[in-house]
Design brief:
With about 100 residues, the chain is an alpha/beta fold. The chain has one domain: Response regulator (Rossmann fold). Helices cover about 35% and strands about 20% of the residues. The protein has a five-stranded parallel sheet. It is globular and about 30 Å long. The two termini are about 15 Å apart.
């Protein structure tokens, strides 16, 4: 089981696998069991964003055990949180914000 950190700019926390694009993150979700997923929203001009990952999770059913949102985009965070909380199974933890320091 792995922890995944999606971000094209920020440094990856220790104990996490870095995905710099939505496509990289989706590949990890397809092929690995994910414990913690921390999502950024903006991933570069014209690139698929964190919402594309959230949409993949919902349509595939490949949920991480816990999901956090470290994005600075309030609107993006709200879209991702709303989509995942509407569809996530009850045993999946969706946190409306970034990981606490002790989780990193």
């Amino acid at each position: 089981m792995i922890n995944v950190y999606l971000d094209d700019y920020r440094p990856c926390p220790q104990g996490f696998v870095l995905a710099k694009t939505a496509a990289e993150c989706i590949l990890l979700l397809q092929h690995e069991e994910v414990n913690i997923l921390s999502l950024d929203f903006e991933l570069g001009w014209g690139q698929p964003n964190g919402l594309a990952v959230a949409e993949y999770i919902v349509t595939s059913g490949r949920y991480p055990r816990r999901c956090y949102f470290h994005t600075s985009s309030l609107a993006g965070r709200l879209q991702m949180v709303h989509l995942l909380t509407q569809h996530a199974p009850l045993d999946i933890q969706i946190h409306n914000g970034p990981m606490p320091a002790e989780s990193r």
